[in-house]
């Protein structure tokens, strides 16, 4: 039995196999309609989510399985003080696989230690979001045809953004990756990402605070929102939330082959006028998330690919 707690839990080869399966699902969706007949996915979401939770549910339903779970801690026995360990022991009696989102870093890891079914980390605090990372990798590969020799701009909240941290850790395993880290001083990447990942791997990167300056060199621009819920006080949030807003004027500075990604939800960091630009790939990215999660469920349940 395997779990997915960190994007590095799968080797590069295993990741490529997963992305290949997701690509086949995209183009041959009907043939996967019954591969998980009789299987049940439990979605344990201790904090709000739209895309991640519903895409997991859509993925399992697309595979012919069924879904049970809760969408907030208030609607679970966590409100009565039940531990994650006890919850997963109970859920293991009801379901075949579990997707968990939790505000505390490491909660899915704890769950995996007491679980008798595969546990998927659907986001834990500001730590990791491995299924979003797999979605990002599939999106980038599908749009550009590669996962190497890319200049990737990461913009916005790089300090608290778990999607950013996970994507960096995943992409440094490929050759020719270069990062431009675009953020205000207060929201720069954590030291452990800078020293233990980028510096340790000898990956080329630079940190800037000007989005316009970075635009012309990018192959991928990964926008993130400034997350109000990650700030200790509202004053800092209000001061920084409008630091970087992508609009058509900024898009004019970019390559015709550059694509814009965003894990969503957005607030105002991408103007709605950009939605019409063919390089705006964030809604397509959300669709790729369903295919990736279908492939992941199949992989962890060791379901055979249909002929």
Describe the overall structure:
It is built from eleven helices and nine strands. The protein has helices at 12-27, 51-62, 84-94, 107-114, 130-144, 162-171, 191-201, 211-214, 234-240, 248-251, 282-300, and strands spanning 40-45, 66-70, 97-102, 119-124, 150-155, 177-182, 204-208, 220-223, 259-261. A five-stranded parallel sheet has the order 7-6-5-8-9, covered by helices on one side. It has a four-stranded parallel sheet with strand order 2-1-3-4, with helices on both faces.
Query: Count the helices. How many?
Result: 11
Look at the helices and sheets and give the structural class.
Answer: alpha/beta
Number of strands: 9
Q: Spatial order of the strands in the main sheet?
A: 7-6-5-8-9
Poorly predicted tracts of residues: none
**End-to-end C-alpha gap:** 24 Å
What profile does the largest beta sheet have?
5 strands, parallel
H and E order: HEHEHEHEHEHEHEHEHHEH
Silhouette: globular
Mean pLDDT: 92
State the helicity in percent bands. 25-40%
List the SSEs and their pairings.
Blueprint: H1 12-27, E1 40-45, H2 51-62, E2 66-70, H3 84-94, E3 97-102, H4 107-114, E4 119-124, H5 130-144, E5 150-155, H6 162-171, E6 177-182, H7 191-201, E7 204-208, H8 211-214, E8 220-223, H9 234-240, H10 248-251, E9 259-261, H11 282-300
Parallel strand pairs: 1-2, 1-3, 3-4, 5-6, 5-8, 6-7, 8-9
Helix pairs in contact: 1-5, 1-11, 2-11, 3-4, 5-6, 5-11
């Amino acid at each position: 039995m395997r779990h997915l707690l960190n994007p590095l839990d799968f080797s590069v080869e295993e990741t490529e196999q997963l992305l290949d399966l997701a690509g086949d699902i995209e183009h041959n969706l009907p043939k996967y309609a019954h591969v998980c007949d009789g299987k049940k996915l439990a979605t344990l979401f201790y904090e709000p989510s739209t895309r991640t939770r519903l895409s997991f549910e859509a993925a399992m339903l697309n595979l012919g399985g069924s879904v049970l779970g809760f969408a907030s801690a208030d609607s679970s026995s966590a409100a009565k003080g039940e531990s994650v360990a006890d919850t997963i022991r109970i859920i293991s009696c009801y379901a075949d696989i579990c997707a968990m989102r939790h505000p505390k870093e490491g909660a899915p890891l704890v769950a995996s230690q007491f679980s008798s079914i595969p546990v998927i980390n659907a986001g834990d605090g500001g730590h990791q979001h491995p299924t979003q990372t797999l979605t990002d990798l599939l999106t980038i590969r599908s749009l550009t045809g590669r996962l190497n020799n890319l200049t990737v701009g990461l913009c916005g909240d790089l300090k608290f953004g778990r999607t950013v941290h996970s994507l960096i850790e995943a992409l440094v395993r490929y050759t020719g990756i270069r990062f431009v880290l675009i953020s205000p001083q207060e929201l720069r990447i954590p030291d452990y990402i800078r020293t233990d990942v980028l510096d340790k791997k000898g990956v080329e990167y630079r940190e800037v605070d000007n989005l316009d300056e970075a635009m012309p060199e990018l192959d991928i621009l990964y926008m993130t929102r400034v997350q109000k819920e990650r700030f200790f006080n509202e004053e800092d949030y209000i001061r920084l939330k409008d630091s970087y807003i992508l609009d058509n004027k900024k898009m004019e500075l970019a390559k015709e082959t550059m694509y814009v990604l965003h894990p969503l939800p957005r607030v105002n960091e991408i103007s709605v006028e950009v939605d019409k630009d063919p390089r705006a790939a964030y809604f397509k990215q959300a669709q790729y998330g369903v295919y990736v999660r279908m492939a992941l469920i199949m992989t962890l349940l060791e379901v055979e690919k249909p002929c």
